[in-house]
Design a protein that fits this description.
Elements (H helix, E strand, L loop, with lengths): L5 E4 L17 H14 L3 E4 L1 E2 L5 E2 L2 H14 L4 E4 L9 H4 L9 E5 L3 E4 L2 E3 L3 H13 L3 E6 L2 H12 L8 E6 L7 H10 L5 E6 L4 H11 L2 E4 L6 E3 L2 E2 L3 H14 L7 H8 L7
Length: 274
């Protein structure tokens, strides 16, 4: 079994300081929260960025500022920008961080209901175009999956040449598909042999899903984007606290934690240039 890769989704696009005053908006806050997660054991920082007032943005220059600050604090961490952005953004807006040529970026493989009237739209042409651009820019996609149909889309577009193998999936459970052991096992059994996977449980599902991933040989995503609590009724002060909890779970269950160098090897990324 590979060592455990921990991803920290440090701020997201929808969660705000009203949910938890420690949610980062400024470049300094983003850098600090990334550093707490990195020092606790995270190998990947999944990155959204905000304006200082908390407004979500996909602005390339804002991403560059955040990525530079994270690299200053966490020199070898893998930075994984989101191309999801926020509900209502255009494809052109969402693709801006790929112009910075990160090692990884997210690739959402379907349209989903985010709650209420909010619909996150990813047409077939959007998925194919994003995949093509990531291949051209040598960016490994993390295939974002919110239900089984998105796995099927990823496999279909891989066969058509828009997503390269081996694929890496992130199962986001508790939004459109329930967060249960049955559903996680179903998704894991549905992906191509040789693929890797991470699970992100939303809200109270975060740590139960993490525990399942640890024993099933997958990887784990935690962070304020998915859950602002450390336990019931206790807001997390940092993303690092959530990472520390996963590290404790992994230790109890006999799974070692991957360093960023080991994570690159597991995911098939190029070694970090010195």
């Amino acid at each position: 079994m590979d060592k455990l890769i921990i991803t920290a989704a440090i701020c997201g696009a929808e969660v705000t300081k009203e949910h938890n005053p420690n949610v980062p908006y400024t470049i300094e806050e983003i850098g600090y929260q990334a550093e707490t997660a990195y020092k606790a054991g995270a190998s990947i920082i999944h990155l959204h960025v905000r304006e200082d007032d908390g407004t979500p943005t996909q602005n390339k220059e804002r991403f560059k500022l955040a990525m530079d600050e994270i690299r200053r604090r966490c020199p070898d961490v893998i930075i994984q920008p989101s191309t999801g952005g926020a509900v209502g953004m255009t494809d052109e807006e969402r693709l801006q961080p790929t112009e910075l040529y990160p090692e990884m970026a997210t690739l959402d493989c379907g349209t989903l209901n985010f709650g209420g009237d909010e619909i996150f739209v990813n047409t077939e042409n959007t998925i194919k175009n994003f995949g093509k651009i990531m291949i051209e820019r040598d960016i490994k996609p993390e295939v974002e999956v919110f239900d089984k149909g998105m796995v099927d889309y990823a496999i279909k577009f891989h066969k058509q040449g828009f997503i390269k193998a081996p694929m890496h999936f992130d199962f986001v459970l508790g939004v459109q598909m329930s967060a249960s052991a049955r559903d996680l096992a179903f998704l894991v059994d549905s992906i191509p042999q040789g693929s890797t996977w991470t699970v992100a449980g939303i809200g109270r599902n975060q740590f139960p899903m993490a525990a399942l991933a640890i024993v099933m040989g997958g990887h784990v995503r935690v962070g304020f984007e998915d859950n602002t609590y450390l336990e019931k009724g206790v807001l997390a002060k940092t993303n690092g606290e959530q990472v520390e909890k996963v590290v404790r779970l992994a230790k109890e269950l006999g799974r070692e934690i991957a360093s960023p160098t080991e994570a690159r090897e597991i995911l098939g990324l190029k070694p970090l240039s010195v």
